[in-house]
Amino acid sequence: MIMLVIVFIIMCMLSNYLLRGKGAFLIAGYNTMSAEEKTNYDERALCIQTGKMMSWITVSIALLIVAAYSGNNVFRYIGYFVMVLSIILGIVSMNRVEPEKNNILFAGFMIQLTQVTTYKRRGEQL
What we know:
The chain is 57% helix and 6% strand. The chain is mostly helical.
């Protein structure tokens, strides 16, 4: 139980850091790219995208904490559902990145059904 709360606090801090457009060193795969490969991606947009996915996973952890304290299995199942859905949608949206255009599609749920945002390469006009 205490471990879930500790994980929740750490996830809140990390997702907040990523949502501010910082923390690219935390993204697996991106931090191992060469400097010239990194120029093909908008680092800030990638951090924000990863932060969105982590935020939804944090919400699911909060639901699991509520389920553990209340003993209500409904919160547990909703938490699992939100976690699985956010991971699937996050992976799909991260793999839809085209380095030439840097389009990132993020399919949100609950609050916003779909949000499509186009990011540009550094120094490129839209």
